[in-house]
Amino acid sequence: MPPPLRLIDRRSLLVAGGAALLFSGAAAQAEAGGLLDAMNSGDPAAIARWAEGTMSPAGLRRRSAEAWGRLLADAAQRAGRLSLEGSDSQRGATRLRLRAARLTGVRFLDLRADRDDPAKIYDIRQVAQPVAYAGPLAPTTSRTALAAAIRRRLAFALAHDDFSGTIQVTAPDGTALVRDTTGWADRVARRAMTAETPVNIGSADKSFTAILIGQLVEAGRIGFDTALLSVLPDYPRPEALAGVTIRHLLAHRAGLGEPEGGILAYSQQPYDRVADLLPAIAAMPPAFAPGTRAAYSNEGYVILGAVIERLTGRPYWDVLAERLYRPAGMTGSAHLTRPEAMARAARGYLYAADDLLLADGRIVSERQMPWRGNSCGGGYSTAGDIARYFAALRAGRLLRPGTLAAMTAPASEPYPGVHFGMGFAIDTIEGRTLIGHSGGGSAIGVGVGLRTMLDSGWSIAVMGNYDLQYAQALTTDLATLLARTSAA
Q1: CA 363 to chain CA centroid, nearest Å
Q2: Least trusted range by pLDDT, from 288-292, 435-439, 440-444, 452-456
Q3: How far is residue 343's CA from residue 404's CA, in Å, rounded to a whole number?
Q4: Whether 175 contacts 166, CB under 8 Å
Q5: 30 CB burial (10 A radius; 0-12, 13-18, 19+)
Q6: Range 10-126 has CATH code 2.40.10
Q7: What share of the chain is helix, strand, coil (3-state, %, to 5)?
Q8: Residue pLDDT, tens place only, 334-366
Q9: Greatest extent of the chain over all pairs of C-alpha atoms, in Å
Q10: Distance between CA atoms of 365 and 350, rounded to whole angstroms?
Q11: Which tens digits make up the pLDDT trace of 379-424?
Q12: Residue in 280, 290, 306, 278 with CA at minimum distance from that of residue 251
């Protein structure tokens, strides 16, 4: 089997860069046993005593022992008696595999270590993830066989409520080999998802921003190694941009912004241009010297949007519509404002944060939406538009072949095992290369996976309104099927 396709979850970087192992082996079993004994007692006071002895001071400051007692007792009451099937230790966390008397299937809890006191627990979090596909991902030699394999995989996801949205796998000649839509765009309004429903594509917009930068390079307006300060000399804290180039920003090697980003914290109010967000970004000190390492950065792509605005004299969204949406024929794509998105786009669905064992159904995402997405992500699109976008990219209507080749060559590894070029994720499965980008994350109700094989012309658009891990699993398996097919 090939290694799994690695898609982006910013939170995984925070865990990987956090504390050492919390505990493992017999210690993990003992600690988990203490937690389960307390939860199975159904007594909030007993659970609070467990929390007092096991949670770190920082963890108890963010949630008191009594509050932990109430939360965990409620979770146990809804789930029924818990039993431990096993545990897996990771850097910074131990994941418990549980069975619950009133729930079907395996449930998971993450016990996260305190970075300053790794022997103590800082947080206990739900783990919402899809059921691993048990069916074969066998090689296919015809479109008929490939379509059947794709439909079997999709049916498996639907049977476990692991996907909502639109999926489209497009053949090299532009034919939609498989296109299927399921789920609700808005459960309260009873709006069913359709193939034309705009879906938030999250960070997948970063590839669009990179293409606009590539076009400016082709026009001679800038170079990949142009110093950023030569384009934005009036940046609020110019010393933060010293040594930063366009290439650094594109490849997540500039050191600007926190790894998890923070765009939602400073894009709530209406703004007219992406450059309006620069003062908030400038307040964040650089995390490292440019070019010395890689860390995924939303803020870097916001700055690239400001570069596009400075060089064109127009708002980012207008440039995107003229230079990418229009030549690609993407008539259903836009950066919707919050009111527009609420009225006609797909709403996001996720499990409530206090539903630790996923005993209840998904709820609509209440996380604050930005006023409008921008050059780091948050636009809306459809599966059909994404197929047209990939066709235009392969045909040279968006970038010259040499520029695209330069931008899709490996340039950084912002997450372990996850390779990026300049604006594109790069995945290799059994010697076949797929490029594209994904969007979304955990607990936000956005999950999109976009991939194409430049050599063969096959493409994938997984446009979901559940969390990224659900789209990730489906995209991984579909990419494997495409890598193994010999169908033309």
Answers
A1: 19
A2: 440-444
A3: 36
A4: no
A5: exposed
A6: no
A7: 40, 20, 40
A8: 999 999 999 999 999 999 989 999 999 999 997
A9: 70
A10: 6
A11: 999 999 999 999 999 999 999 999 999 999 999 999 888 999 999 9
A12: 290
Structure-token match 């190694």, residue found:
225
Round to whole Å and give the CA distance between 305 and 374: 8
Query: Phi, psi (5° rounding) for residue 361?
Result: -75, 175
DSSP 36-72: HHHHHHT-HHHHHHHHHHHB-HHHHHHS-HHHHHHHH
Candidates 398, 379, 394, 387; CA nearest to 333 is: 379
Specify whether the CB–CB gap between 39 and 76 falls below 8 A: yes
Q: Where in the chain is the domain with CATH 3.10.450?
A: 10-126
Q: What is the CATH number of domain 133-488?
A: 3.40.710.10
- Strand, helix or coil at 179? strand
Q: Which two tokens stand for residue 5?
A: 């396709």
Q: What does the H/E/C string look like for 333-399? A: CECCEHHHHHHHCCCCEECCCCCCCCCCCCEECCCCCCCECECCECCEECHHHHHHHHHHHHHCCCC
- The ranges of the chain annotated as CATH 3.40.710.10 are 133-488
